[in-house]
Here is the input.
Amino acid sequence: MKTIYVPVSDPYEVRIGPGLLPTLGRTVRSLCPKASRYVLVTDTGAGPHWAGKAADSLISAGLAGDTYTLPEGEASKTAANLVEVLNFAASRHLTRSDVFIALGGGMVGDLTGLAAATYMRGVDYIQIPTTLLAAVDSSVGGKTAVDLPAGKNLMGAFWQPKHVLCDTDTLSTLTDEEFTSGCAEVIKTMVLFNADLFDRLYREGKAFDLEAVIARCVDYKQDVVSEDEHDTGRRAFLNLGHTMGHALEAESGFALSHGQAVAIGMATVCRAAAKAGLCPDDVPRRVEAILEKFGLPTRTDIPFSAIVERIRSDKKRSGDTINIIVPVRIGACVIRPMGIDEAREFIKAGF
Here is the structure.
């Protein structure tokens, strides 16, 4: 097992390793000693495999509670479902001293975190990521949100979890497509921070050491988040490929997974950076090669005009400026503020 400490305003630990789910009840008892009830939020993908084991652990620790199951997929990350979860918690008499448990991927974690942030003006919650994407990225850092028709994650709050319990056994029930989607965030992390691990990942492919790679990704993320908890500066680094990626997700009606969309966005910005002379030509070549090796797309048939309209509603936009994360080389990127028109032309060059 590996433990990563996240030193934010309300610090917490991320525990990563196999066989951790049975420790959930003891963890809640230790971190939330006044809690007597829980609401466990999951989805139809993770719930049938893992919700029973999580509930057994909670009940064994003397907690009472109920499970709310959402339909699997990003289409469930809506304001309407957020209100349903809040009403469910209220109907089960959850109090301010009680706890939400998020058991699932990014959709479940984001929505449950926002429910915890808003229920009675804020209660504790624990993240149990059951997808690779959630384990390496969305479960850590305190970003919570639901989507609006205009765009992804436009309704949200910063609300740090009390703990992240990453039982790597839960990743065993992922489909190959789900696992591959998570690999996009792993690749993104290495493009941002570590050329040597990028090369190692290319050599090993999907046979990489799961626990070690998740821990390394989480460690990089906590380093950035602890410096910029509320996403006003360096944390923008973590959005490599995400400006176009979020636009692609929304425009595809979420037919493209988050990982697929980010892979296309990352490849596009690398091609654009090389054409603008901001990075060597080998950067897009190497990034496209590793994405293709992992079975991820590097281009899209969605019209560029539709993508631009989505980017105009991106939550990362500030006035007429948006930050584009641009690679300088593998393992090093810079934040380049661009006007919307400039960003459009830059992205178009790599499209």
